[in-house]
Automatic annotation (TrEMBL):
Alphabetical keyword list: Iron, Lyase
Name of the protein in question: DUF521 domain-containing protein
Sequence ranges assigned to domain Phosphomevalonate dehydratase large subunit-like in this UniProt record: 145-544
Top-rank lineage group of the source organism: Bacteria
Tagged with keyword Transmembrane: no
């Protein structure tokens, strides 16, 4: 360390000692899709830290953003000795912190995590070397009240797995500032995505300790198509542990739904229902579109809550945490198509990196559930906020929700901002396309039908692969309705169980250089995850690229 090394202090989320060189960014980072768990490199090609290594550095970022699976990547980084020496946050967050807590609790591997506050965080920009001496976080605050049943779970009344899970739940309740726990009615688990040996060991340990979910529990998309990965040419050294991970969660009582769009299942949460969902797009959809109540639960906390049936009473479980903090107004638009919604979600997420926005000017277009799905997935990619409101559309904003009376900061979008966002999602120049990627999040029955109408009577270019990911449930519904076989005849490949954020070669043909997608989420993550350049456009433009072998579209007509 140099003579100008300073000692940093703050609120201790995870205790420990560290010193090293600062790696600073004022932009939140999604570890899933943003950091390589094996090498420690930042692979989000749109992030200011792109190409930097986290190993041994004191990472200073305001918060996380994007995927709930970031906690799994943090765990793997620490177990691989590729992670930072410490993490300094501007404000408390749960995804990154939980990854460190699990590494500490189950594997004895930890780094300090501190929340330093806005003023101190700003000073880190100009620091080089820092030292951290984070004192122990102390005993559980007396303000966190536990019921006799909670105390019993903690003491082992429901078995060792539930006791381990309860200890982790209480650590996170402390960080969230919760004063009590609440009952939840259902869970959706994102931790079934295979990020490495650590996540598999965590799940299998809970299973072996007798873990059993206490509420109806669904599983997110996993890292392979469990029924077909061998036939698809997936290497056994990846396919076998990824499939074992899914089996571990099923053994604990979770349903093998394997979808990143659980809101497309027949049994959906109701308004104001207290639930625990992970997977960023699902969280945002549940809160915003269904009006259910869930925090943005990180991987591993989701299963801990499912094993105990108890969650911290904090975040979007509370009325006060669901209010908008920002008003966003759209420019005049006309003749829109479906590409508007993921583009807007992506852009608005960058403008509201951790604030809940209310968007004005969309109601006249009457967005349907698929439009809101596309918007929410892109929004959850660039923002850490757990929900959004759309005036006159989403349930808590149908009549304005009283928001018209709130004195909120106003951001009025411009066409120039929309054009810039379009350019960012279209990283590759117009030209040849080798793969069309659809279904991030998983396609719905209506989207498969719409794809069928666009492909009818046309011939796919032989040099282009067109792959749709969806759940087993949706694929069967579409098969019964008669939409699947004509699309297969056109040349569409359907892949279930997994999703584009996990798909690599050989499902992505090795010769692929450019991928075309209608997903704002995948257009953002794709370059880092696949190593390919991306084109983005409407579903119609994607079909046109599949037929022509190239994307020649410029800006859409609604974006002059």
């Amino acid at each position: 360390m140099t003579d100008d090394t300073v000692t940093i202090s703050g609120r201790v989320l995870v205790p420990g000692l560290a010193e090293g060189k600062i790696l600073f960014s004022d932009v939140g980072l999604s570890f899933w899709g943003g950091v390589d768990a094996v090498t420690g490199e930042v692979i989000d090609r749109r992030h200011p830290l792109s190409g930097q290594s986290l190993r041994g550095r004191i990472l200073a970022i305001p918060t996380s953003r994007g995927s709930c699976s970031g906690s799994g990547v943090v765990l793997e980084l620490l177990l691989n000795d590729k992670g930072p020496a410490a993490i300094l946050l501007e404000r408390p967050e749960s995804i990154i912190t939980l990854g460190v807590i699990v590494a500490e609790a189950l594997f004895g591997c930890s780094i300090p995590v501190l929340c330093v506050g806005e003023k101190n965080f700003a000073t880190l920009r100009d620091r080089s070397d820092v030292r951290i001496a984070a004192m122990d976080r102390g005993a559980r605050p007396a303000t966190l009240r536990l019921s006799p049943e909670d105390e019993g779970i903690l003491a082992g009344a429901q078995g060792e797995a539930a006791a381990v899970a309860m200890r982790i739940v209480l650590r996170m309740a402390e960080i969230e500032g919760a004063t009590e726990l609440i009952d939840i009615t259902r869970a959706h688990i994102d931790g079934c995505i295979y990020t490495g040996a650590g996540g598999l060991a965590f799940a299998e340990k809970l299973r072996d300790l007798g873990g059993c979910v206490q509420v109806p529990t669904t599983l997110n998309a996993i890292s392979v198509d469990q029924r077909q990965w061998r036939a698809q040419g997936i290497a056994p050294e990846f396919g076998e542990p990824a499939s074992r991970l899914a089996d571990a969660y099923v053994a604990m009582g979770a349903k093998p739904t394997f979808t990143c769009a659980p809101y497309l299942l027949d049994d959906k949460p109701q308004r104001d229902e207290q639930i625990v969902w992970a997977e960023s797009n699902a969280v945002v959809f549940a809160n915003s579109v269904l009006g259910a109540r869930t925090m943005k639960y990180p991987d591993y906390l989701d299963i801990c809550v499912a094993l105990t049936g108890r969650a911290p009473k904090a975040g979007c479980h509370l009325d006060s945490a669901r209010l908008p903090a920002l008003r966003i107004r759209l420019p005049a638009l006309r003749d829109i198509d479906d590409s508007l919604y993921p583009l807007l979600g992506y852009l608005i997420g960058t403008l509201a990196p951790d604030e809940i926005p209310v968007i004005e000017g969309l109601a006249e277009f009457a967005p349907d559930l698929n439009d809101l799905k596309a918007f929410g997935a892109a929004f959850a990619t660039t923002s850490a906020a757990p929900m959004f409101h759309i005036a006159g559309v989403t349930p808590e904003a149908i009549t304005g929700g009283g928001y018209a009376l709130l004195d909120l900061p106003v951001v009025t979008l411009t066409l120039d901002q929309l054009r810039q966002a379009w350019a960012e999602l279209n990283g590759a120049p117009a030209g040849p396309v080798q793969l069309v990627s659809l279904g991030n999040p998983h396609f719905s029955v209506e989207e498969i039908a719409a794809l069928g109408r666009l492909c009818r009577g046309r011939i796919k270019h032989p040099a282009v692969a067109l792959i749709v990911t969806c759940s087993r449930h949706v694929l069967e519904q579409a098969r019964v309705s008669g939409d699947v076989e004509p699309l297969r005849s056109f040349g569409v490949t359907f892949v279930t169980d997994t999703c584009w954020c996990m798909i690599t070669e050989p499902l992505i043909p090795p010769s692929t250089k450019v991928i075309m997608t209608n997903s704002g989420k995948y257009a953002h993550y794709g370059p880092g995850l696949s190593g390919r350049e991306m084109r983005f456009g409407s579903l119609s433009a994607c079909v046109e690229a599949a037929v022509q072998g190239m994307d020649t579209d410029g800006l859409p007509v609604w974006l002059p």
